[in-house]
Design brief:
The protein is an alpha/beta fold and 362 residues long. It has a domain of 219 residues: Aldolase class I (TIM Barrel, Alpha-Beta Barrel), CATH 3.20.20. The protein is 34% helix and 12% strand. It has 13 helices and ten strands. A seven-stranded mixed beta sheet has the order 2-3-6-7-8-9-10. It has a three-stranded mixed beta sheet with strand order 1-5-4. Helix 6 links the parallel strand 7 and strand 8. It starts with 32 loop residues before the first helix and ends with a helix. 39% of the residues are buried.
Amino acid sequence: MPSLRHAGRGAVTNPGVRFDSKVRSDFDDGWATLTQEVGDLPRLDTTLIRDSTKSVISWNTSPDIGFDRAVNPYRGCEHGCIYCYARPTHAYLGYSPGLDFETKLVFKPEVADLLEKELRKPGYVPQTMALGSNTDPYQPVERTLRLTRSVLEVLDRFNHPVGIVTKSAGVLRDLDILAAMARRNLVRVHVSITTLDNRLARVMEPRAATPSRRLQAIEQLTRAGVPTGMLAAPMIPALNDAEMEKIVEVAARAGATHAGYVLLRLPLELRQMFEAWLQEHFPDRARHVLNLIRETRAGRLNDSRFHHRFAGQGVYADLLSRRFARVARQFGLDEHRRELSRDLFAVPGETPARTERQLSLF
């Protein structure tokens, strides 16, 4: 199958939806018809699709994740990061995890109103809300739709703690809200930095902010009093892993207060997609990269077991873990983080008198 490589897009394939009862297989008849069809493909524009969901808080009970709830205003992500573990979730919507994931974006126009309704439910107990756990809340479409900002406005009014993960400098557009929440110990931001090499970043995450813009975001957030960490995520063997120490160092000098890393994960369709991407962009080292990944995943390209999926196992994985621990300690990014406040949570409009009247019924 010829490459579906498009300028400004990450994936070079668009695999079928794994839930479909019928599977299409492209076949080269020897007359170069496949190559001709691919060459005639139009430019891939981004399509926005409304989501009519009636709930927006996603709950999980995973023992190796530090949060139990999340809000994702968008499904799919225009950043186009080839390694994104969220790509296979697009199949639940009937779309391909490949090019569809970065060109067919599903957005939730009522996300703020729905979130407020859920926070107002009797018996709701606040814990840190994750924002950006699946797709980036500050991907380019946020500039116009401003759904992430609307979510923050709700959390701010409720004094609800929130943790944000992004690889976009667009987070600075909400600095007014974030700084105000930080003064009440209600927010923490993590900025993901995978490489300091602009060329590699452009190929690996084509529509995300440049590495320098992300470092500037860390600096400005920290200067505004917003606790900001960095994530060296993901680390890809023989591709960006040699940069780990330098990434942590420059992030620390920019003001990052804590750090983390994740080893590359390749669930479901992502295995074949990543392999095709490697062959397209790094044919000279593709085999070596894949072999190293298998070393960390017990001979496979992925290991989905809890407590194994983020760090891997084996000699290479252990070495990566020790390297990160050393450099984080060196730059003071391994200190225990203060828990975000939950005691300030309050439902707007409710008064102590109202609560007492409710309790007097029992």
